[in-house]
Specification:
With 283 residues, this protein is of the alpha+beta class. The chain has twelve helices and eight strands.
């Protein structure tokens, strides 16, 4: 599976989605907040996002200005011939290590990535087997470029034993599906993962630097910010209950601790700068 769309323009309703293939997204121009899982990226021209695919994501676009982006969807298996070659560079490592990651490309880096994307488009337009092959080679060149730009953060990433990392990834994968469950507790995690509560708590803190429920509550609060952005009419109480809080006061206290202001104040501040029809005004 390989799909390439260059400099597409248009708007659509913000809707979270996921897929089983990898994605490379390049932002050319417009006003866009890109939401990936519990992260919100305020995009600028030259921003390139690597997306693992399975994490829920969607763009929140200001329709008052042109929204132009380039997207590549691809099955990583297609790159196996390049990865198996002698002295091959592990060009998929940024996807595998970071899952989702943004590069802010400016100056010469921005010019280079845009040149490579134009090269892909030129070969795509030929509509031949040779053109298809050269388009893929240009894309592999882009992945080498991305890998090189990720070398520093890749090298800075702290290493842990594979067993511990794998277990923590299992915990995180479970939390991705259960973090809004108001009955979520260590006993349930212990039962579903077949590991003791004390061991789970210990290795999660060791690998991530936070406790399991620090992670859960941070994810819930970040998700609340996403909901306030996407659904400005949604009440704070509804957001709180939707995200698994039994008590509004608990949600409000955690939100203020993490964000620095109450959810009501944060929600009001998001409305500042909006026009009467609810669209964000141009800055």
């Amino acid at each position: 599976m390989f799909e390439f769309t260059h400099r597409t323009e248009g708007h659509y309703e913000a809707e979270f989605h996921s897929h089983t293939f990898y994605e490379l997204y390049y932002f050319h121009e417009g006003k866009c907040n890109y939401l990936i899982g519990d992260q919100i990226y305020n995009l600028g021209p030259g921003d390139l996002i690597l997306m693992y695919g399975m994490t829920l994501h969607c763009p929140k676009v200001d329709p008052s200005v042109p929204y132009i982006r380039t997207i590549v969807h691809f099955d990583p298996a297609l790159l196996r011939p390049y990865l198996d070659a002698p002295n091959a560079v592990p060009i998929l490592q940024p996807y595998e290590r970071f899952r989702n990651y943004r590069l802010c490309l400016r100056g010469e880096d921005k010019e280079e990535i845009e040149r490579l994307l134009r090269t892909m488009r030129k070969h795509q337009e030929r509509g031949t087997k040779v053109g298809e092959g050269r388009m893929m080679l240009a894309f592999v060149d882009i992945l080498h470029f991305v890998y090189e730009k990720c070398l520093e953060p890749l090298n800075e990433k702290r290493e842990f034993s594979s067993d511990k990392e794998r277990t923590v990834q299992d915990v995180i994968a479970l939390l991705e599906h259960r973090y809004t469950d108001e009955e979520l507790n260590m006993e349930r995690l212990q039962k579903e993962l077949h590991l003791s509560k004390s061991y789970l708590a210990k290795i999660f803190k060791e690998v991530t630097g936070v406790t399991i429920f620090d992670y859960v509550y941070r994810k819930r609060v970040n998700e609340a910010k996403v909901l306030f952005l996407l659904h400005p009419g949604m009440a704070v109480t509804e957001v709180s209950f939707r995200l698994g809080f039994k008590h509004l006061a608990h949600f409000s206290r955690l939100f203020k601790q993490q964000v620095g202001e109450t959810p009501e104040k944060y929600k009001r501040r998001l409305g500042v700068g909006r026009s009467s029809d609810g669209k964000a005004e141009r800055s």
